Amino acid sequence: MKAIRRFSVRPVLPEPLRPLSELARNLRWSWHPETRELFQAVDPEGWRAAAGDPLRLLGSVPAARLAALADDRRFRRRLAAAADDLQDYLTGRRWYQEQPEGLPAAIAYFSPEFGITAALPQYSGGLGILAGDHLKSASDLGVPLIGVGLLYRHGYFRQSLSREGWQQEHYPLLDPNELPLTMLREPDGNPSRVSLALPGGRSLRAYIWQARVGRVPLLLLDSDVEENGPGEREVTDRLYGGGGEHRLLQEMLLGIGGVRAVRTYCRLTGHPEPEVFHTNEGHAGFLGLERIRELVDGGLDFDAALECARAGAVFTTHTPVPAGIDRFDRELVARHFGAAGELPGIDVERVLELGLETYPGGEPNLFNMAVMGLRLAQRANGVSTLHGQVSRQMFAGLWPGFDAEEVPIDSVTNGVHAPTWVAPEVMRLGARRVGAGRAEDALAVGGSPRWDAVADIPDADIWELRRTLREQLVEEVRERLRAAWRERGAGTAELGWIDGVLDPGVLTIGFARRVPSYKRLTLMLRDRDRLMDLLLHPERPVQIVVAGKAHPADDSGKRLVQELVRFADDPRVRRRLVFLPDYGMAMAQRLYPGCDVWLNNPLRPLEACGTSGMKAALNGCLNLSVLDGWWDEWYEPDFGWAIPTADGAAMDDNRRDDLEAAALYDLLERRVAPRFYDRTQSGLPGRWIEMVRRTLTTLGPKVLAGRMVREYVERLYAPAAEAQRALTPAAASELAAWKARVRAGWPGVAVDHVEAVADTALNGTATLGSTVCLRVSVTLGPLDPADVEVQAVAGRVDPADRLSQTATFPLKPAGGPALDGRRLYEGPLTLDRTGPFGYTVRILPSHRLLSSGAEMGLVTLPSEATGEAAGVLLR
Known about the structure:
- It contains 29 helices and 27 strands.
- Helix content is 38%, strand content 17%.
């Protein structure tokens, strides 16, 4: 029989155990070993059955056991210490509180997914895990963040395999009352709600649930509200589900509803209102429209409100490919805004112009969420140095006339939250060497460029730690593999071979990620005979653990999974290569520490960052990767290996994959495996251990999310807050009017003549340190000198006379306008480098409230004739 109604029955904890409820409801337990150990002590068997979820555990502990614990003085002391520690963590001064005044009072951080813990399954992959690590690190640092997302009733899908190895999806129903969430309520006890207007007089209503991530509140919007129509109730059904209007409504609820949820939360709790709004990928881009609507309702016109909203906004792009961006048909977006839908006080054409791809190479009838995010944020960044370069090229059309390197998209390389991803055994070893407090501070807060204390750990201790972690992984793999085969229909009698899967003494390689084609899950299968030789080598065998999910709508990705699973099913190799279905946080926390090598072989430069290798590195795992994402900027041969990239315009896909797979096999066969199995007289792989040590000392401090969040605070949040405060209503109106005047007058701006006078005769050559005096005649049309900056841009030139490695030098006005209205600018240009050298001049808008000269996308360069007349090109 099936139940007709489901609800949760909560246990009544004895008074001495009441602090357990507070500890269970603050997700700090997910990265605080002492709190997890406390819950494990409540009921070790129940803890395993609850998969490490304190709320599930407390819901299943027998009353007799609770009564016994209430009388256990030792347990009560542990409980009191844990409760006091949490209170100190929540209220004490941390890194942020020790910084100089002027930092934002609060920051709102919007993301479509958050990977905090497996007990709150609201994530699909790297974007969500990164968002969860961002919140946790902000909490550790004391950064006053408010997280904003959606509560998906089915989360992301659970993955299993058919007997034939085909991916199957399952969507378990999640009950918010059984999750570590609390519904936000009004003073009268009624649930707080936000509401969006939809076409046809309909409404989209949503409850606001709160998760406590240490010091950081995470607000999750839930459209499963009785007053909603059936379609509206399903808006938050599943992560990245549906398409078209369904996705648009999700993103409207996240952005517009999310701002309204933040306002409600601040009203009810007294939390400071955010000064900075951070959009993590374009899905939440509509938040900027809601902030404009608030300002328009407060009396500003649209243009002034736009400037004000942009000043305090930060946009982070995570995708290096246009296909990874949500784009909607113009008419669909238009139907949901304006008089018949949401934001009725704003002209729908003004809404559309913020997102339409009205630039060379764009699709003018498509509304691009990343484009809107960039147009609505004064500050933007990619998530690694290489990804920043790719993003500047990808979005260069929004800033015509500027070289890609000048596009105002910065980069902050991602990091990972070490207390979440570092195995307890690694933490304990660090605590023994430097003390628990220093170890915790080094992992959570960071700041030290090196972890030199690791150098003092004996080789034997490091190797014993690595073997222990490998043994734990082997046990975990066997358990998961047995469960997976049972789901595939195998009987117990068929599964005896699983007891021999993997060997704790064999070099273990990990590969786990989403399965889009560019991540190349099956590159390792390119030459199956050669792979089999590596797996079964009589003296230096390797073993590989693979996991990953393909998107439910991606049949090509599912075929890749099936191809790998079928190879792994081969009785000849199945003890050396395994595929584990249902990759998630719980699996990852065992997989990263237990591997000796972390493999990553995407198509360069399509991996924005690739943080899985960072998590592995923090556990002493070495990286073997294509030079993409974070590995491109931090790789050193002292602590890993780089897979060569076969690029070039004439390279076809098959040839490229053949070459890169061969390079991978060569590295494994000739360098990686020999180093692992090369033992000293004491039986230790000394050179391998030294690479582990270098990974921890040099790479470890760089990959921390604490370092990442500090960079966001110092380089993005603080300047955004300063810009927001400067944009008073009067200043915003003045800036908007100035921009309108400059845009209208810009067609009349021109570089008329460039003249160079050198301190010696040039004749096409010059000596280092000599000076060229530039005199530039310009026409400013209706603009004033105060509206512009005239610059010289100098640098190296390539054979096509393109400038690179440039530096800019402002030129100054020389007197008033001539009779014909032209103005003369001049200034010195010092020849500060040898080799091919060249320059040009340009005119940019200039205003104290612009974040950069490229902000408006306006630039005037010399015409071809003017440039040739000026022409000084030094070789």
